[in-house]
Amino acid sequence: MAAGIRPAHSVHPDRWRVALTIYVVGGVCVGLVCRPLSMWAASSGIRPGVGTFLCVNALMPTLAVVAALYYPRARVATIGAFLSSVCLYLTMRLVQFLDIAQWTIRATIVDVEPVLVAATVGYIILAMITSVAIQPWRVVALPDAHLRCESCGYLLLGLSKPTCPECGSPCKTIPPIPDS
Q1: What is the sign of the dihedral through the CA atoms of 142, 147, 153 and 159?
Q2: Could you give the maximum distance between any two Cα atoms of the chain, in Å?
Q3: Would the pLDDT of 174 be above 90?
Q4: Backbone phi, psi, residue 32, to 5°
Q5: pLDDT tops 70 at residue 1
Q6: pLDDT tens-digit profile of 31-53?
Q7: CB–CB of 70/22 below 8 Å?
Q8: Is the pLDDT of residue 7 over 50?
Q9: End-to-end CA distance of the chain
Q10: Which of 8, 123, 127, 160 has its CA 20 to 30 A from that of 59?
Q11: What is the average pLDDT across 1-23?
Q12: CA separation for the pair 20, 23 (Å, rounded)
């Protein structure tokens, strides 16, 4: 980002928890919708796989993009996209096999469709690209980041010299003290 140009919107750094919650809840919701969509498609004379196709190829990518737009950090996008896929799979499995006591780790892992693994990689890539592409307009920073030293983060309000008192690096501009 060019010096002196402020982003249109700063996202507070503590919102990563909310972003991961969006990924997890979104994955569960898509997992809950997948079976009814498949049943609707089958009863409407449409191919039965259309419901799952819509979940995997439309709803989950939309979730990845929307959550990455909300909190544009590549690490959170990667973890969130993976978690949403895990939640999607486990919710779909739970809807299909309600008796969790009968689940085994081996059967649960073996039943993962290769398409879902490939789709998960796609969600991760899509979320990362979205989070990187949106950063000129939405940046994860404190709302007063433009008032801080670029080197150490010291708040530069009320300085008499254009030098950071914390680290000694030169400041381009000295922000005025806001009137209360």
Answers
A1: negative
A2: 75
A3: no
A4: -75, -30
A5: no
A6: 999 989 888 888 888 887 888 88
A7: yes
A8: no
A9: 31
A10: 8
A11: 76
A12: 5
- Which residue, among 51, 52, 120, 55, has the nearest Cα to 86 in the 3D structure? 120
Q: Average pLDDT, whole number, for the chain?
A: 86
Is residue 85 a contact partner of residue 93, using CB atoms and an 8 Å limit? no
What is the distance between the alpha carbons of residues 66 and 43, in angstroms, rounded to a whole number? 31
Q: Can you tell me the distance from the alpha carbon of 83 to that of 27, in angstroms, rounded to the nearest whole number?
A: 8
Q: DSSP assignment, residue 139?
A: E
Question: How far is residue 48 from each of residues 29, 38, 59, measured CA to CA in Å?
Answer: 20, 5, 17
N residues, the chain = 180
Query: pTM of the prediction?
Result: 0.76
Residue listed under structure tokens 């950090």: 73
Measure the CA–CA gap between 74 and 58, rounded to whole angstroms: 21
pLDDT tens across 117-154, in order? 999 999 999 999 999 999 888 878 776 767 778 778 78
Whole-number Cα distances in Å, 46 to 35, 50, 61, 114, 173: 14, 7, 22, 24, 64
- Ordered by start, the domain boundaries in the chain are 9-140, 145-180
Nearest Cα residue to 68 out of 139, 8, 128, 143? 128
